[in-house]
Specification:
- By secondary structure, the protein is α+β, with helices and mostly antiparallel strands.
- The chain has three helices and four strands; from the N terminus they run ααβαβββ.
């Protein structure tokens, strides 16, 4: 899901150039709307909200409620490295990697 149509198109083109377009789906819409239109399950979800935004707890909750995640799914949440993430209901932390000013939190849905 990508809010910017130009960026969504660039992602689709990159998937084609890597020959993975048959397993990559890009949905050009704001996440808040897209979650009601998508059908899962998805194996990998990458969340890259603006760093100043709060942790997208509602989006994470909706992904679980709408059963959009495969049981062994991996949710990768990009955030500012200085942000300490709260416990996220319905998810367990798999690991976290810090790369300078940003970090990636790897989350899996609770069984």
């Amino acid at each position: 899901v990508e809010a910017s149509r130009d960026v969504a198109h660039a992602i689709e083109e990159a998937a084609k150039s890597l020959a993975v377009d048959d397993v990559v789906t890009v949905f050009p819409a704001p996440a808040e709307r897209a979650l009601y239109r998508l059908e899962g399950p998805f194996d990998i979800v990458y969340l890259d909200p603006p760093y100043a935004d709060p942790v997208p707890l509602q989006l994470l909750r909706l992904m679980r409620e709408r059963e959009l995640l495969a049981p062994d799914a991996l949710v990768v949440y990009e955030h500012a490295a200085k942000r300490i993430l709260p416990e996220i209901p319905g998810y367990r932390s798999v690991r976290e990697e810090v790369y300078g000013d940003f970090a990636l939190a790897f989350l899996s849905p609770d069984s």
